[in-house]
Amino acid sequence: MTSDTTGAPPRAMLPTWSDVGHLAQRQGILIAFILFIIAFSFTSERFASWDNASTVFRQVSIIGTMALGVTVVVIGGNLDLSVGSMLSFATVLVVDLHDKIGPAPAMAITLVATLAIGAVNGILVGFLRLNSLIVTLGMLSAIQGVTLIYSGGQNVDITDQEATWFAFFGRDFLLGVAVPTWIFLGLAVVFQIVLTRTAYGRRVFAVGGNPMAATFSGIRRSYVVFSTYLVSAFTTFCAALILGSRVMGSQNNVGQGYELMVLAGVILGGTSLLGGSGSMVKTVIGVLILGFIQNGLLLMGYQYYAQWLVTWVVIILAVWLDVASKRGRLFTTTT
Amino acid sequence: MRAMVRPDPTGWPLRPNDADPRSARHNDKNGVKRMKIGTHFAALGAVALVAAPAAAADTITIGITQNNVGVDSYQTTYERAFIEAADADPDVETVVLDAGGDVARQIGQIQDLIQQKVDAIIIWPTNGQAVVPAVRQADRAGIPVVITNSQIAEAGFDFIKSFSGPNNIVQGEYSAQMMCDALGGKGQIVQISGQPGYTTAIERQKGFEDELAKSCPGVTIMETQPGDWNREKSQRVMENFLTKYDNIDGVYSGDDNMGVGALNAAKASGRADGMVFIGATNFAVGYEAMGRGEYWGSVYQSPVEDAKNALATAKAIVEGEEVPFLNYFDTPKITKDNMSEFEKPVF
User: DSSP letters along A80-119, please?
Assistant: First the structure.
């Protein structure tokens, strides 16, 4: 790779190998993603179809929407593990209130309640400077408890599934694309613009990258961290709308384990757990890789237990390809 | 708490006095006194508890420690039904405990019940393996143990008198028979099973597969994937099945909650018509879908029957009656034709 930088190649119409090299260096995970899609396409003819692709996009939209908010938290240098329980809570609340007071008020109340949970996380981590892992891990069980108390252990369901316009969020299509996919990708675009083109976005990166420097630059660090938790609460609320509308009901532990899927997607995409770097595009790709792996393995008819193993192998391969493309060789040759 | 205990005319929970160390000491003394009185009363209460069965020779005391009340509607209803059944029976006193899903707490509760010298202990195991030593202690203390709902590990079989609960293998067989009837003995189906490693899931799957292979060879299972008792997960699994297979005649799900998820997916793709959905553990949503003709059949498992059966089993054992080691309660088939005979499930 070092030879590429020695002389400036003449500009040509076609991209040169060095251009490809530069692209691979920056977007290793994207290359890995494309390789997987090609590999899976060879093994199952149903995999590479528009129908299947749109199914996977719809399936990952819940995890994906949550992952967008968590990416903002992670870029800000913290973690949010409470999103799984928060999803259960928001879904149970919105579905339960739907039949009692109607869809719009139910959504409004759920939004406020979910943001309130995010605000508590934000105050504890942002203003009290408590360890985010511990705060949100505690919140994970606390909110699960609140959900159980609220629901009394009962499943909640929407009675009139055909008539309600609440079905829009999880079941409808716009221009041939499912609404959940629009929500997921739409939010991704908006968040990407906010992160890269606004002062707020730069502050989040600054706080996550070097909190001390950020503070000395006049950034109010506590407020920025606080706001990132509101963002992740908001995306979890959006995911709850999709989930509640798609299933038309909710179990009180429906989001159990989702926090790990979300975090896996964020990290796989390449957002650094140390904070200060990452992007929405990466997270979208990370989540899609996970979604396509699950879908692809199922279409190939792998036994369930083998799927766990193969998922791990694929993740390792993806991360390896990412790292290898950054350093320009597959193996390190350090002595 | 202290401020709350003391009679406080002002009604303020925190008065300036409370910050005074002397006042706090004073409080402490009071607190200790109260505690002494408290234990005294508790001791009296314990005496009364022990004395009560002696006074009325006919009453028996049955202790129960449940798995995790409040975590789902089934367990919530079970507890309510158990207490109602016990209240209705003048011969039975009960001590109703809940382990909150915590193995350690359940073991502690079993030991408490042994100390209280109850006449029988009913256990809904939080973990079939971990409770075995505590069950052994109860057996050594001469207290008969009945396991309810979920079986304990085989190592503990020598220490229990009976298991009261649903027969999940038979439930799987019932579902297979309904699937066979609905398809006229011929077709290709998919299976969505419960959480991997969970006894109920394993037994239902085994019952279903064995019965289908034995009495209905014309119906083949193309593929089985777990839905983890989660409706959204099952919906995803079913969407993938629908992509993979052009022709699916029927879907068997390990419970109705997952079955309705599969139904949602099939309806969304416009392929639900003519597809046969069979479940187990009839849920309210499954019951409603059955009423609309979208869901073919399920197995009706009532938490009320489950609770009553456990209490009756324990009582019979204390009274010296012969009880089968595996004392199952009836979980009948439910389809559109006979659903009017059943109440809509509460969960």
Answer: --THHHHHHHHHHHHHHHHHHH-HHHHHHHHHHHHHHHHH
Q: Is there a single domain that holds both residue B47 and residue B106?
A: no
Residue ranges per structural domain of chain A: 48-321
Pairing of strands A173-174, A177-178: antiparallel
Q: How many domains does chain B have?
A: 3
Q: Which of B244, B271, B292 to mutate to test the interface with A (most CBs of A within 10 A)?
A: B244
- Per-residue confidence (pLDDT) for residue B343, from 0 to 100: 86
- Predicted pLDDT of residue A149: 86
| Res B311 pLDDT > 90 | yes
Secondary element (H or E) of residue B212 = helix B199-215
Q: Which residue has the higher pLDDT, B98 or A323?
A: B98
Q: Is the domain of B16 the same as that of B111?
A: no
Residue A16 pLDDT level (bands cut at 50, 70, 90): low
Residues B296 and B309 in one domain: no
Any domain includes B343: no
Write the DSSP symbol of residue B185: T
Asked whether the beta carbons of residue A247 and residue B264 sit closer than 8 angstroms, the reply is: yes
Reported confidence tier of residue A304, pLDDT bands at 50, 70, 90: confident
CATH class of A48-321: mainly alpha
Kindly state whether residues B19 and B119 are assigned to the same domain: no
For residues B117 and B141, membership in a common domain is answered with: yes
Query: Are the beta carbons of B270 and A264 closer than 8 angstroms?
Result: no
Please tell me the distance from the alpha carbon of residue A220 to that of residue A197, in angstroms, as a whole number: 19
**What is the Cα–Cα distance from B147 to A111, expressed in whole angstroms?**
44
Residue of B72, B222, B287, B295 to mutate, testing the A interface (most A Cβ within 10 Å of its Cβ): B72
Q: Which of A46, A155, A304 sits opposite B243 (nearest CB)?
A: A46
Q: Which residues of B touch A149 (CB under 8 A)?
A: 70
Of the listed ranges B66-75, B250-259, B277-286, the least confidently predicted one is B66-75
User: Mean pLDDT over residues A241-248, rounded?
Assistant: 92
pLDDT at B36: 38
Domain that holds residue B176: 168-300
Q: CB-CB: which of B73, B223, B284 is closest to A153?
A: B73
Residues B158 and B172 in one domain: no
- Are the C-beta atoms of B298 and B280 separated by less than 8 Å? yes
Secondary structure (3-state) at B256: helix
CATH number at residue B327: 3.40.50.2300
Task: Judge whether residue A135 has pLDDT over 90.
Answer: yes
Q: ipTM more than 0.85?
A: no
> In this structure, what are the phi and psi dihedrals at residue B235, rounded to the nearest 5 degrees?
-60, -40
